[in-house]
DNA sequence: GCCTCCTTGATGCAACTGCATCGATCGATA
DNA sequence: TATCGATCGATGCAGTTGCATCAAGGAGGC
């Protein structure tokens, strides 16, 4: 590993730098649009969306954490905020005394529905409108390989 | 604007979701490699690199801020940390009594040189090795259009 | 059952970020 | 030159994140 020859082409370095910068810029533009419309951050949307997809069983916190690729303590605090805001409920897990089951509330679903038009418009304006269909498809494939 | 028809294809939505997730994951892997090697975060590297490129004149804080796409207060604090760690110097700007000129120190250049092998290896492992040359080039072009 | 190790989720603390605002200086205008 | 709005950079405060650690409960071996 350590001694392995490690070649980084000029083109790859450029692509790397651009990936870091551009994804940051575009994401922050979308977040800014959401905030300007009075909505919470994208991470709230992501969490609620996963919980809506998991209806009606809900999700264990560690499952949501895996799907969102969040650190455990960050998920714990995100769910605190979501619960305090009334967008999710925490139930005790009948199968595991340590755990919980998270479920989105009706208020949470309503938030998803009201955020989506703004979120969608932001994705279109800052991302989708700047690429044609073949570029979009190629980008999705390329990103897939980076997982 | 508000009334404009706003279409988001399934493919574009997929590409968007992947861009957000993948860039976050890959970036965090690279950052983790740097941290594991005992190095400071990537933002320190970026700042020092810009200042090295700007040698010997240095950069005004607002110029560095524009290049790094950082909020003004974040740049102010980043430079605090870099200065406290001895990687940069702040000089008074002879042309503008409000401002400063930031310059990388020899210690800062040494940090750049010692970080680069680890950083490069991480880029290769988590990014460049997963794509072929044509994908890399296409990705760079596509990302360019998102600016 | 009991011991041990693993998993689940929470939390104290320090560091960092976002927001609003400030003081200082610059530049344009009268 | 005096004034006024704009620009430059710093900072107090609150919210968020990273790190280390903890308590509680589960799962497997004896």
UniProtKB/TrEMBL annotation, chains A, B:
Stretches assigned to the HTH marR-type domain: 1-147
PROSITE patterns cross-referenced by the UniProt entry: HTH_MARR_2
Highest taxon in the source lineage: Bacteria
UniProt xrefs under InterPro entries: HTH_MarR-typ (IPR000835), MarR/SlyA-like (IPR039422), WH-like_DNA-bd_sf (IPR036388), WH_DNA-bd_sf (IPR036390)
Gene3D superfamilies from the UniProt entry: Winged helix-like DNA-binding domain superfamily/Winged helix DNA-binding domain
Pfam family, one: MarR_2
Name of the protein this chain belongs to: MarR family winged helix-turn-helix transcriptional regulator
């Amino acid at each position: 590993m350590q001694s392995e020859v490690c070649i980084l082409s000029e083109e790859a370095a450029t692509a790397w730098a651009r990936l870091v910068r551009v994804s940051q810029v575009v994401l922050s533009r979308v977040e800014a649009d959401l905030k300007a419309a009075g909505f919470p951050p994208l991470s709230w949307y992501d969490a609620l969306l996963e919980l809506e997809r998991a209806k009606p069983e809900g999700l264990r916190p560690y499952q949501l954490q895996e799907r969102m690729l969040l650190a455990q303590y960050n998920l714990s605090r995100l769910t605190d905020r979501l619960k305090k805001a009334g967008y999710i409920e925490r139930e005790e897990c009948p199968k595991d005394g340590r755990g919980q089951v998270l479920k989105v509330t009706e208020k949470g679903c309503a938030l998803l529905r009201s955020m989506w038009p703004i979120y969608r418009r932001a994705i279109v304006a800052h991302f989708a409108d700047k690429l044609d269909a073949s570029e979009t498809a190629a980008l999705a494939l390329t990103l897939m390989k980076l997982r």
